[in-house]
Write a structure and sequence with these properties.
It is found in: Cytoplasm. This protein has two domains: about 5-105, Beta Barrel (OB fold (Dihydrolipoamide Acetyltransferase, E2P)); about 125-170 and about 205-465, BirA Bifunctional Protein, domain 2, CATH 3.30.930.10. It has helices spanning about 5-10, 55-60, 110-115, 125-145, 205-215, 250-275, 275-290, 300-310, 320-325, 330-335, 350-360, 410-420, 430-435, 450-455, and strands at about 20-30, 35, 45-50, 65-75, 85-95, 150, 160, 170, 200, 220-225, 240-250, 315-320, 365-370, 385-395, 400-405, 440-445. The strands form three sheets. Strands 6-10-11-16-15-14-13-12 form an eight-stranded mixed sheet, sandwiched between helices. With about 475 residues, it is α+β, with helices and mostly antiparallel strands. Helix 4 (about 125-145) crosses helix 7. The longest helix has 23 residues, at about 125-145. The structure holds 4-amino-1,4-dioxobutan-2-aminium adenosine-5'-monophosphate and magnesium ion (MG).
C-alpha cells in the first residue's frame, strides 16, 4: 500500500507522478470532479475523472461519504483555490454509502445537530480541526514535561478515596442493585464487593501524584477523571481529562510559574504546528461573530488572542485583591452580578469572567483563597484564614487550572482533615508521605478540555471531547 496522505500530497506537490490516495467523498460534481478527504487536513484533493473513461455503474457509486481508492497522476490544477489535482487512472469503491440516508450533507450543520450524530461529526471540517488540535495539545503536554525530566505517572481510575473531599463520585461496584448484601445495621456490606470495600471512579490523581513526587521529585499525570456533579454548563463534563503535575521542593510561586510556562508552551506548540487548522477555526469564529451586534464582538480574533496570551505575563493577584476589585467595580455598583460578592465566597463564574474579560483582559492567577472553600490538602497560611491555593482564570473560560502548595506538616494536615471530616485512617498511605521525609511540594490540575476550548475557541465543552459524558447523556 503506497498510499499518500492528502496533507502530504498538497505540500509535497509531486507533479506528473503516479500516486494512490484513499479517503471519503465530500462532493461529486458533474460526474467529473470528486472532492476527496482523508482526515489529514480540511483541504480536499480534487480527483478528476475523464469523461467517458469510467462506466456509469461506477460513477453512480461515487456518492457523498463513499470510501474510494484512487490511483492517478498529479497534475497542476486549472481550478480556483487549489494548486494540484489528481487525474484518475483507476478508481475503486472501497465502501459504498447511501447518500440519501447519510446524515451529513455538504452544507453547514449546527453544532447542536452534530452533537446528536457525534459518531460521524469527525468528518466535518470543524471537528477535523478541533480533534487534530486536541491531539497536538496532548502530544505537547508530554513533550513539555519530558523536556523537563518529569516522570509520567499512571494513577488509578478506580480508587477507594475521594481526592477532593467533595463527595462527587461515581460508584464502582459488582454488587447486585436490587438486593445487595447488607450488614446487621441494614447498610450495604461492601466486604462482599469485588474489591472488598466501597470504590469509585477517581476525581483526581493528585494524592497518588504526591506519592510519586516525594520519590521522583517531579511527576505528572494525564488521564480521565470523573465527577458526578450535576452541572449542565458549557464548561463541565462528568468525564474529563486532567493533567496534574506534582513537584517536590516547589512553593506556590514556583507552581504558578510552571503553570504559566506550561500553558504558553501548549499554545505556542499549536501555533507552530497547526497553523492551517487554527486559521480555519479563526475564520469560523469570525463568521459566528458577524451574527452578533457590533458592540458584542471581540476585539481580537482567535489567533491574535493566542498571540497575546503567549507574549504577555499573566496577571497575579490574591483572592482578597480579587474581591476588592469586584466590590469596587461599576458592575457591582450597578448590581449587575447575580450572586453576592463578599470576602469568603466561592467566586461564581460571572465574577471570574468579570476579572479576566472586563477588568484585566488577560489570564489571571488568583492565590491565597479562604481555607473554608478549599480542599483539605492545601497548605495553611500564617494568617490562619487562607491557604496557599492558586486558580488560573482564562478569558472566555473561567477557571482553567486549580492547584496549591500542599500542607507538608503532618500535625497541621491531620488537624485539618479532622476539622473537615476527611477520614485520615483511610488515607494512612497518603499521610505516610508526611511521616517519612516530608518536603515542601506543590502541584496543579489543568482541565484538558477547557484548554482545548481556549485554543480552538469552541464555546461548548461538548464539542472538544469525542464522546461527551454529561447529565442524562452517554449515547455514543
Ligand atoms: O480545581 P480542581 O477540582 O482541582 C483538582 O482536582 C486538583 N486535585 C488539581 C491538583 O491540584 N492536582 O480541577 C482542576 C481543573 C479545573 O481547574 C478545571 O480546569 C478542570 O480541572 N475541571 C473540569 N473540567 C471539565 N469538567 C469538569 N466537571 C471539571 N472539573 C474540574
Ligand atoms: Mg477548582
Amino acid at each position: 500500500n503506497n498510499r499518500v496522505k492528502i496533507k502530504e500530497l498538497l505540500t509535497w506537490q509531486p507533479e506528473q507522478q503516479q500516486v494512490t490516495v484513499m479517503g471519503w467523498v465530500r462532493t461529486f460534481r458533474n460526474n467529473q470532479f470528486v472532492a476527496l478527504n482523508d482526515g489529514s487536513t480540511n483541504n480536499n484533493v480534487q480527483v478528476v475523472l475523464e469523461l467517458g473513461k469510467f462506466n456509469d455503474d461506477l460513477l453512480k457509486r461515487i456518492t457523498t461519504s463513499a470510501a474510494l481508492k484512487v490511483k492517478g497522476t498529479v497534475i497542476p490544477s486549472l481550478g480556483k483555490g487549489q494548486t494540484l489535482e489528481v487525474k484518475a487512472d483507476e478508481v475503486e469503491i472501497l465502501g459504498d454509502s447511501d447518500a440519501e440516508k447519510y446524515p451529513l450533507q455538504p452544507k453547514k450543520h449546527s453544532l447542536e445537530f452534530l452533537r446528536e450524530i457525534a459518531h460521524l461529526r469527525f468528518r466535518t471540517n470543524t471537528f477535523g480541526s478541533v480533534f487534530r488540535i486536541r491531539h497536538a495539545l496532548a502530544f505537547a503536554v508530554h513533550q513539555f514535561f519530558n523536556n523537563k525530566g518529569f516522570i509520567y505517572l499512571h494513577t488509578p481510575i478506580v480508587t477507594a478515596s475521594d481526592a477532593e473531599g467533595a463527595g462527587e463520585m461515581f460508584r464502582v461496584t459488582t454488587l447486585p442493585f436490587d438486593n445487595p448484601p447488607r450488614k446487621e445495621d441494614g447498610s450495604i456490606d461492601y466486604a462482599e464487593d469485588f474489591f472488598g470495600r466501597s470504590t469509585n471512579l477517581t476525581v483526581s490523581g493528585q494524592l497518588e501524584g504526591e506519592l510519586g513526587a516525594t520519590a521522583f521529585g517531579e511527576i505528572y499525570t494525564f488521564g480521565p477523571t470523573f465527577r458526578a456533579e450535576n452541572s449542565n454548563t458549557a464548561r463541565h463534563l462528568a468525564e474529563f481529562w486532567m493533567i496534574e503535575p506534582e513537584m517536590a521542593f516547589h512553593d506556590l510561586e514556583d507552581n504558578a510559574n510552571l503553570a504559566e510556562e506550561f500553558i504558553q508552551y501548549l499554545i505556542r506548540y499549536v501555533m507552530e504546528n497547526n497553523a492551517d487548522d487554527l486559521e480555519f477555526l479563526r475564520q469560523r469564529l469570525l463568521d459566528e461573530e458577524k451574527q452578533k451586534p457590533q458592540n458584542e464582538r471581540s476585539e481580537m480574533d482567535l489567533i491574535q488572542k493566542l498571540e497575546f496570551v503567549v507574549n504577555n505575563k499573566f496577571e497575579r493577584i490574591t483572592y482578597t485583591e480579587a474581591i476588592d476589585i469586584l466590590l469596587q467595580s461599576p458592575h457591582y455598583k450597578k448590581k449587575k452580578f447575580q450572586y453576592d460578592v463578599k470576602w469568603g465566597i466561592d467566586m461564581q463564574s460571572e465574577h471570574e469572567r468579570y476579572l479576566v474579560e472586563k477588568h484585566f483582559k488577560k489570564p489571571v492567577i488568583v492565590t491565597n483563597y479562604p481555607a473554608d472553600i478549599k480542599s483539605f490538602y492545601m497548605r495553611q497560611n500564617d494568617d490562619g484564614k487562607t491557604v496557599a491555593a492558586m486558580d488560573i482564570l482564562a478569558p472566555g473560560i473561567g477557571e482553567i487550572v486549580g492547584g496549591s502548595q500542599r500542607e507538608e506538616r503532618l500535625d497541621k494536615l491531620e488537624q485539618r482533615m479532622k476539622d473537615m471530616g476527611v477520614p485520615s485512617e483511610e488515607l494512612w498511605w497518603y499521610l505516610d508521605t508526611r511521616r517519612f521525609g516530608t518536603v515542601p511540594h506543590a502541584g496543579f490540575g489543568l482541565g484538558f478540555e477547557r484548554m482545548v476550548q481556549f485554543v480552538t475557541g469552541m464555546g461548548n465543552i461538548r464539542d472538544v471531547i469525542a464522546f461527551p459524558r454529561t447529565p442524562k447523556n452517554a449515547e455514543f
